[in-house]
């Protein structure tokens, strides 16, 4: 059922809060996701990333949860809930009971285990609360840090799709990872 007023949940992990995105996160999204080192591995993020475009991205993602299309949460430190570090998301395909995991973090938050911590919490939420049988991710070939995150999350490498996704003017190979509900619950 579609519930137009439903609020996305707040999830807490050891170091982080995963909270709803807010309109006033637009500048942080533009600066942090628009950084060349981050945007190079995201499909639709330009460098530089205009704040107006980031604001539109936020509004689009805020609509996912009330419409049952998935969830996108902002990643913040527990003691600094206003300062957005990045985001983590599940894009849901209801009929197939699966969702695609996505995430990014600003470079100043890299290397502390935050992506793994945030994604693990959202995977747990997805299997517990969103009636999913499968969660998967698609990584642009060469993104070793993201592959490592997915391996730490217990996802299996499911192979590669060659020249599968266009980013800018180029077609990229994509590495596939996935985890099934049974594997997660074990
Ligand atoms: C991918 C990303 C979210 C990782 O964030 P993070 O918080 O630094 O990740 P974590 O600290 O949880 O784990 C990163 C792991 O990758 C490893 N790693 C980092 N850079 C690496 C590299 N170049 N080659 C191999 N491993 C690497 C780290 O050592 C760590 O593994 P370890 O815990 O075994 O040491 C971050 O780099 C990012 O935002 N990248 C750009 C956007 C992106 O790629 N999004 C995902 C799209 S699929």
Explain how this protein is built.
- With 186 residues, this protein is an alpha+beta fold.
- The chain has a domain at 11-136: 3-Layer(aba) Sandwich (Aminopeptidase), CATH 3.40.630.
- 29% of the residues lie in helices and 33% in strands.
- It contains six helices and eight strands.
- Helix 1 (26-33) packs across helix 3.
- It is globular, with a radius of gyration of 16 Å.
- It starts with 10 loop residues before the first strand and ends with a helix.
- The model has no long low-confidence stretch (mean pLDDT 96).
Short description:
The chain is α+β, with helices and mostly antiparallel strands and 186 residues long. The chain has a domain at 11-136: Gcn5-related N-acetyltransferase (GNAT) (Aminopeptidase, 3-Layer(aba) Sandwich), CATH 3.40.630. The chain is built from six helices and eight strands; from the N terminus they run ββαααβββαβαββα.
């Amino acid at each position: 059922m579609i519930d137009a007023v439903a609020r996305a949940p707040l999830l807490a992990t050891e170091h982080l809060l995963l909270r709803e995105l807010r309109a006033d996160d637009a500048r942080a999204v533009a600066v942090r996701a628009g950084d060349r080192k981050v945007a190079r591995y995201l499909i639709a993020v330009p460098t530089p990333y205009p704040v107006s475009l980031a604001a539109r991205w936020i509004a689009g993602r805020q609509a996912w949860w009330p419409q049952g299309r998935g969830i996108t949460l902002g990643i913040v430190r527990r003691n600094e809930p206003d300062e957005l570090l990045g985001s983590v998301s599940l894009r849901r395909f209801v009929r197939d009971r699966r969702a695609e995991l996505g995430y990014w973090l600003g470079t100043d938050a890299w290397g502390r285990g935050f992506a793994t911590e945030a994604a693990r919490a959202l995977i747990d939420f997805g299997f517990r609360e969103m009636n999913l049988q499968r969660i998967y991710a698609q990584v642009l070939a060469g993104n070793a840090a993201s592959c490592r995150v997915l391996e730490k999350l217990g996802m299996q490498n499911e192979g590669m799709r060659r020249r599968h996704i266009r980013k800018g003017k180029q077609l990229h190979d994509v590495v596939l990872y996935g985890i099934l509900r049974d594997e997660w619950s074990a």
